[in-house]
Structure formats: C-alpha cells, structure tokens
Amino acid sequence: MNGSRTDEWGRKYMEKYSLYEEFAGRISNLLQNLVEGENIEVYSVFGRAKTPEEFLRTAGTPPTGEQSVLAGIADLCTVKILVSFPDDVAKVEDIVQKEFLADMSRSIPLATLDSPERYGYPAVSYVLSLNRERAALREWAKYRDLPFTLEIRTVLQEAWAANAPKVSLPTDMATKKKMQRKLLRLSALLEEADEGFLSLLEAARESAMPVTVPSSPEPAPFRRKVFDRAALKQYFDERGDVLRRWSDAAVETGFPPFVPSQEYLETSLSYLWDILRAAEMDSMEDLDEFLRSLEEEGRGEEQISTIFKAFEKEASAWKVDGYSALFLLVLNLKWEILQQKDLVELNIKKGSDRIKGVS
C-alpha cells in the first residue's frame, strides 16, 4: 500500500473495528455453547478482532471497493477452541460443519492433516460465516457478511503453534537444517503424546470399576460446587422463577416489556457470568447470598427503580430480560469492586451497552 491508501484503509477498518470486536465476542460465546451442548470438554475458547495496526501491517494492495477488501479477509476475526484430546477435535469439526457455512478453499479440515509431507503439528482451521438461518435472525443480521477464522487445536498443538515460531530465527543453512530436523522430531513427540493420552483415557474408561464411595457416619468435608458458566445456567434453569421475578420487576418499574429469543438469552447469560466474575462472586454461595440480599427490605426493586429514574429518557430502548436485570443489579450494588477493574477488557461495557440498545 502507498501512504495515502494506507491511511484511507486504516480509517475504513477503524470504523468497522468495533463491529468485528463485538462479533468476536458473540461468535466465541455461540461456539462455546454449541460445543458444551454436545458434552465436549473445552479447555478454552478465545476470540479476538485484528487491531487496525495489525490490519495495516498485513494488508496488501486492496482492490477497488470496501466490501471486496474487508469481506474477503477472514482473519479480521479469529476464534480459537482448545480441547484436551484429538477425538474432541473431530467432534468440534462436525459441529462447525453443521452450524456454519465453510469456505473449504481456504480451510484446513482434519482429513487433510494425514499427509506424510506435512510439516510440524498443524491444526484444523476453517474460514466460516453465518449460515442462512442464523443470519436471518435479527440479533445476528449485522454480522451476516463477516467471515471469521476458527482454529481447533489440542492443548499440545497450541504449545507447538506458540513455541515453534520463537525458535525459527534467521541462521545459516546448516544450522537451519539441524533445527528443522529437531523441530520435526518434537512435533512427532507432541503428536504421539496426544494420541498416547487419548489411548490412556480410553483404556481407563474400559477398565474402570463400578465402585462407589462407601457411606460413612463421618460428615463429608465441605466442598464448594464447581461454579462456571454451565453451572450458572443450570442454577437458573432450576430456578426459573428468579429470572421471571427480576424481569417482571424491571417492567413494573417502567422498563419496556421484552421477550428475548433463546440465543439472546444465552448471550445475556454470558454477560452475567462475566460481571459475576469481575465482581469477585466466584461461588454458588456468593450468588445465593447476593440474591437473598436483593429481597431484604425491597433492596432489589429499589435499586432497579433508581436505575430507571436515572436513565428514564432513554429507557424506552432498553432490553431488560431476567439475566440483564441481574446484570444491572450486580453492576450497581457491586460498583465499589467493579470500578477498580478494566470494564472494557472484561466485557462489562459491552454487556451494559447491549442492554441499553447501543450496537
């Protein structure tokens, strides 16, 4: 790119950067829900948008027309899913192929990684976009023309991807060949380790004995229940009245009635999970205590009323479902803790803007 066109395309991407950043968060949440819904253990899901600075460094000479440039660059939004075992990679790949449109000409499916000519320990990679059904939904419509890159890796493949480039430094040809041979041996060891862990898991499952812990008169030591996003969803699934209670309270206060789709609710749950962690409410017991405190002397209703009065002029555009009502209550009642945090980095700002109808 020449200087003037660099500035021009930098500005154009800067204008759309927030959309790509938002898309990265939304698509990461969707993928995590889809994968966990099939009982696949996920090590991590991480999505990010390429920064404008990265875009300018990596973009070549753009063809005419903004759409042909941005819509054609798949790595402006990238999501990475890490799993524990190689067979989980295949399971995630099946989900992806069913739920999204795949550009196979720019993808690396699992079937292509068996080539004896391949170098290193590469991972499955897909260039994807929303399918017609999801793109037709109102809450996804603005992302329908955005492609994204999805990488599906085991934890050991991620170790290869993170470390191999660091040791591939410029050197003389003889040294380079020696290092490449060693890297090839290391990649083979990592692949063997992945397959070995999977074999051990399968053997352990086959040989596991149907033994239960014997009953004991001694009280079992107290253990906190696992508190993650899935546990939070189960918590509210078992207490549907809690969500109705606070969505109704929001409407009674003056916020407009809002009937969200299931996907909208899933995203609201994710933002509630984000703010609970940011507010250092990291156990079921903490959540129970917080919900009980809302009932004391009408504290919850009073706080929602205070929020409505403060934003009454713009409240007609707000979308307050049950999860969002609790998000607002945590935001206000735990502000002493939250104000010390980076609320943009922790997704709290996005969650708040979404409730207010700010795209």
TrEMBL record:
Family matches, as InterPro entries: NT_sf (IPR043519), RelA_SpoT (IPR007685)
Gene Ontology biological process terms, A to Z: guanosine tetraphosphate metabolic process
CDD domains according to UniProt: NT_Rel-Spo_like (cd05399)
Residues in the signal sequence: none
Family annotation (SUPFAM superfamilies): Nucleotidyltransferase
Domain of life, source organism: Bacteria
Protein name (Swiss-Prot/TrEMBL): RelA/SpoT family protein
